[in-house]
Amino acid sequence: MTTHGSVPLPVVDAWWRAANYLSVGQIYLLDNALLREPLTASDIKPRLLGHWGTTPALNLVWAHLNKLIVERSSNVVYIAGPGHGGPGVVANTWLDGTYSELFHHVSRDGAGMEKLFRQFSFPGGIPSHAAPETPGSINEGGELGYSLVHAYGAVLDNPSLITACVVGDGEAETATLATSWHLNKFLNPVSDGAVLPILNLNGYKIANPTILARIPESELTALFTGYGYSPRIVSGGFDGEDPMLVHERFAAALAEAFDDIEAIQKAARIDGVTDRPAWPMLVLRTPKGWTGPKVVDGLPVENTWRAHQVPLSTVRNNPEHLAQLEEWLRGYRPEELFDEDGRPVAFLDADQPVGDLRMSANPNANGGLLLRSLSLPPLAPHAVDVSGGRGAVVEPTRVLGRWLRDLISANPDNFRIFGPDEVASNRLDDVYDVTNKAWQGSVLPTDEHLAHEGRVIEMLSENLAQGLLEGYLLTGRHGLFTSYEAFIHIIDSMFNQYAKWLESSAHVEWRRPVSSFTYLLSSHVWRQDHNGFSHQDPGFLDHVVNKKASVVRVYLPPDANTLLVTADHCLASRDYVNVIVAGKQPTATLLSLDEARAHGARGLSVWDWAGTEAPGQEPDVVVACAGDIPTVEAMAAVQIVKREIPDLAVRFINVVDLMRLQDSTEHPHGLSSDDFDALFTRDKPVIFAFHGYPSLIHRLTYRRTNHSNIHVRGFKEMGTTTTPFDMLMLNDLDRFRIVMDIVNRVPRLRVSYAGLSQRMDDERYAHRAYTREHGEDAPDVIGSAGLPFADERDAHGEADDTGDDNASR
């Protein structure tokens, strides 16, 4: 342990009082920030917003962490988990100077204090929780449950970092937080940093007691011991106890916890100890709303749920409340804490770290400052060769897995894959040639790829995979989240919060861009026929496109080579949420790598070779598609039409970047009206085979000239355990239905080709009957992943349907 002199506890107490004063001032005061005049109603904000109850404990922890950082030069990031703890975090960042450095108009003096108070929860100001606008924050405090998982994500591959994570006892009841305690089983004390959880046990939520506060202390200790921690409980502040006694107890416990962390890391890094350690954690039991009003209007407030938000709610028009507020504020003795100009007094300097050691200025909490670009391996060695003809059958995600293997080799300390036990299931298991799965638990002879050091973290919790990657990205690293498509809905709310974080960060000048959050969704709706209806849901795409166009990107690569190009693009991008949907089952490779690059750059393309229109000819119908399976079905439908109606001009369009369908005024990737009309025509029928719910295509194209002629086929909540082709027929996305749509929507065909439409209907019945009799799809829709032209010549010459060495898996 390295020390640089001790910080006296009276200084820590003064810092705590100053932070409490600034926190209360933010909630209540519009003017008279330093109380140089008696408080009046006009000094009070017209709308009192904010949360007081959790703030004193947050400030106490911050003040004591400052002490240890000053004494030991520790590298610490502070994560405030309790809901709406913004007043405390902002107060401390102003006290240590970072806030004024980043927001020059909020100077570190009386005038700046006035602005600090006025802006809090005020129109045009800042929110009441830790947010992107809050220096030192990587955890959005508006929605509860994510603090601890963010803390663990932040310290992965960050061996010098300690994240001190204050967990609210109400927050501790959320599903994500309750599971996050297990993340100590994935922390490698050699190559990772440390997380110090501090449970803020103040006893109450908004209107109810918290569970952990109402169980016996022996049970509480047993709970966290069972989770694998070494808990220490610090209680105090009740019944008028002198706060200095609490300072003494908490300072001792915090110092012991830091000593334990240092000892654990030394044992692993120097002595070679491999046993999973019992990491320290603290339980801080103090009154909710400590140091605030004890009784208001004859009702107890401190140490009750009434302290949760604004203890004195009618200050402007209630003289008694106004007097209590002034007494409350003056009780912190601000004249001892701020000089004549309103600056923090020099006495506080002893508890203030300097430079980047300030938790509010720690570069890890502004991860773009530390970001190193990925070394992206070349795509060509992994591309599927189609020089012999389109149609080589491969598992697209397995092809991607080989590229990811090389990516991990080239980036051994700043790229990870996260997922809920599905990396191998989603055909990415070639990465295990060069890495293992991080695991600190016991290992049995039957286990595979488990090791203390690994670039893959799998835990059967989509929430924790999401949160770990968020923490990893926000501290300056790169990663990928892979999941089954249907179950990614589990993190809908977490996605919301992260997208909002990125939206807000874009407006904060000093926030540096971070690597994009990229989802790879496989085991998708059209190849979950074996698992059934519960596994069939493409609706995450609908959820994603609700977010601002500046943040979200959605990609539906039709084949393996386009998937490679898409992944390469997404992992190099910054400040986006990228969603890639790609199948893992064998399917046809349709484009060469060069074609895939061009297609990816355009976002959508006319595939002349897949349509039937001649050069210079205006199409009779447009067949469009987005998604791997819809693309195969659309192409198969065009082949039938080519044979049955040889004079019909069909334009074939594939969409890989879904946001290209929006107008350019709504999304930066969108097509202009003229460009859209040139491709999809102004008046011709458009049959669109789509991976997801049909309504999403209509949402994206509702402003288009030809929208009334766009007919979309997609998933319509018809699912079961059946065969792949029967699944398509259940949802009317099969090739025969698409042919029927073409006949019915091209006016000149409705009568003259009614017989063809009837034959297509008969084909559907025949295929349905075949599955019922044989338990599998008919051979004519199975061969070469259902691509009927696989043995025909195309622009590349002779077709080759042999695939690669994994085609038979």
Automatic annotation (TrEMBL):
Domain Xylulose 5-phosphate/Fructose 6-phosphate phosphoketolase C-terminal: from-to ranges: 584-781
Which co-factor is required?
A: thiamine diphosphate
The record's annotation in PROSITE patterns points to: PHOSPHOKETOLASE_1, PHOSPHOKETOLASE_2
Q: What is its EC number?
A: 4.1.2.-
InterPro entries the record matches? Phosphoketolase, THDP-binding, Transketo_C/PFOR_II, Xul5P/Fru6P_PKetolase, Xul5P/Fru6P_PKetolase_C, Xul5P/Fru6P_PKetolase_CS, Xul5P/Fru6P_PKetolase_N, Xul5P/Fru6P_PKetolase_ThDP_BS
User: Acidic residues bias: where?
Assistant: 800-809
Task: Please report the stretch or stretches of sequence annotated as the Xylulose 5-phosphate/Fructose 6-phosphate phosphoketolase N-terminal domain.
Answer: 11-369
Query: Basic and acidic residues bias located where?
Result: 790-799
Q: What Pfam families does the record point to?
A: XFP, XFP_C, XFP_N
Q: Which HAMAP family match?
A: Phosphoketolase
Q: Which NCBIfam families match?
A: PRK05261.1-2, PRK05261.1-4
- What is this protein called in UniProt? Probable phosphoketolase
Q: What is the organism field in this record? A: Herbiconiux aconitum
